[in-house]
Amino acid sequence: MTLTLSEIEAMSRIPRLTLINAITGYKSANLIGSIGADGVPNLAIFSSAVHLGSDPALLGIVTRPVDGAIKLTRHTYRNIHHNGHFTINHVHHSMVEAAHQTSAPYPDEVSEFEAVGLTPLWRDPLKAPYVAESRIRIGLEFVEEYHIKANNTILMIGRVLELELPDGCLDEAGNLDLKMAGSVALSGLDTYHDTQVLHRLPYARI
Amino acid sequence: MTLTLSEIEAMSRIPRLTLINAITGYKSANLIGSIGADGVPNLAIFSSAVHLGSDPALLGIVTRPVDGAIKLTRHTYRNIHHNGHFTINHVHHSMVEAAHQTSAPYPDEVSEFEAVGLTPLWRDPLKAPYVAESRIRIGLEFVEEYHIKANNTILMIGRVLELELPDGCLDEAGNLDLKMAGSVALSGLDTYHDTQVLHRLPYARI
Predict the structure, then answer these.
(1) How far away is chain A from the Cα of B161, in angstroms, using its nearest Cα?
(2) If we measure between CA atoms, which residue out of A74, A35, A32, A66 comes closest to residue A49?
(3) What is the DSSP code (8-state) at residue B84?
(4) What is the torsion angle, in degrees rounded to the nearest 10, for the CA atoms of residue A8, residue A10, residue A11 and residue A16?
(5) Cβ contacts (< 8 Å) between B25 and chain A: which residues?
(6) Domain extents for chain B?
(7) Across the interface, do A93 and B160 touch by the CB < 8 Å criterion?
């Protein structure tokens, strides 16, 4: 079936955002940890983490604008601006329901860690909480941001400061075994997947 | 195990880029179709497609700079600039090896479609080729780009003009069944995965 631009625009809001959130394919499922001036640790699920480069190691996340409708990503944005640090924590298959629940609109004074039953893990000198239940954890410092004019979203860029990985998941060639680490893949807004390796292919040559 | 910043920086180049390309988690596997002023259809595998918004439907891809070392993404960048259109085509599990092979450094005059054995599919008025073997295809027009100062990469933003989906994969609520469509997930640079649904969760409420 084909959906034209006018058919996409004619869809009602929820089915359209459900569909468009799925069309890029499988996505990462990560919890972003941060803390604000009020001292409340914040945790929010994101599927927009994107690799930007390896030397230096730079990752991006896409957030809603600060004046937008979704409070949670506003907290993440505000907190990262406040102290310059954040964490990216893989959603493990045993914590999918708690991770998904962080997307509920908790009030400012409630920490999503407590609300959903996940455990903040602090590592000096990083000024942002990791998620203890995650098996792959990334500590980052904020580098720069780009305000995307086309729809008033923000690309926030962080530099990797440290990585915490489960023993046995990383080989000497740098291969990270996400399946062994128990990370899940996300499609759309709500569907979490386990994986099976189909092919591991060599570097492509002519 | 923990990798500190100095340990990450001390890694040799290939293991570091192999690792850092995997740390965000599972990624989409897409072929970007484009065509340049020379009339040669170009096809390149990307794992950086990111959802930016649903109304209008906007997606981003991250490319290397035009003066960078990797020719293929230079072609994609140059072609999208040339005529303003591109396509995003999901990698289906039956075409993983051909899709991966598009990352080989073919010379300018060689179309990756021919070189890897995939079929260009043209739909008026889109000035970019789809991949006939893909089951989920997205036609886009270029909207704007952001040059990321931190590492001289480019975020290119496209607006969805049309979607082609396999029959039966989209329900009335907008849910797109990527498993039924046969799309694969990618980890790192070279490992392609099939998936199994673990959980589909309701919209989170307090």
Answers:
(1) 5
(2) A32
(3) S
(4) 40
(5) 28-30, 49, 90, 136, 178, 183, 185
(6) 26-165+177-193
(7) no
Nearest to A187 by CA among B59, B39, B133, B51: B51
* Cβ B47 vs Cβ B30: under 8 Å: yes
Residues 21-60 of A with CB under 8 A from B: 21-30, 47-60
| CATH class of the domain whose range is B26-165+177-193 | mainly beta
CA–CA min distance A129, chain B (Å): 16
Which ipTM was obtained for this model?
0.95
Are residues A140 and A88 in contact, defined by beta-carbon separation less than 8 angstroms?
A: yes
Nearest to B60 by CA among B161, B133, B160, B162: B160
Nearest CA in chain B to A26: B28
Task: Identify the residue whose tokens are 């530099």.
Answer: A159
- The answer to pTM > 0.90 is yes
Q: Is the peptide bond before B125 cis (omega within 30 degrees of 0)?
A: yes
What is the full per-residue pLDDT of chain A (206 aa) written as tens digits? 999 999 999 999 999 999 999 999 999 999 999 999 999 999 999 999 999 999 999 999 999 766 545 444 578 999 999 899 999 999 999 999 999 999 999 988 999 999 999 999 999 999 999 999 999 999 999 999 999 999 999 999 999 999 999 999 999 999 999 999 999 999 999 999 999 999 999 999 99
Query: Within an 8 Å CB–CB cutoff, is residue A197 touching chain B?
Result: yes
Burial class (CB in 10 A: 0-12, 13-18, 19+), A94: exposed
Q: Which residues of B touch A19 (CB under 8 A)?
A: 54, 163, 170, 174-176
Q: Do B62 and A56 touch (CB under 8 A)?
A: no
Q: Are B198 and A182 in contact (CB under 8 A)?
A: no
Asked if A143 and A157 count as a contact pair (C-beta separation under 8 A), the reply is: yes
Neighbour tally for A9: CB within 10 Å: 12
pLDDT tens-digit map of A94-106: 999 999 999 999 9
Q: How far apart are CA B72 and CA B69, in angstroms?
A: 9
CATH topology of domain A25-167+175-193: Pnp Oxidase; Chain A (2.30.110)
Inter-chain CB proximity B179 and A193 less than 8 Å: yes
Secondary structure (DSSP) of A33-62? EEE-TT--EEEEEES--EEEEETTEEEEEE
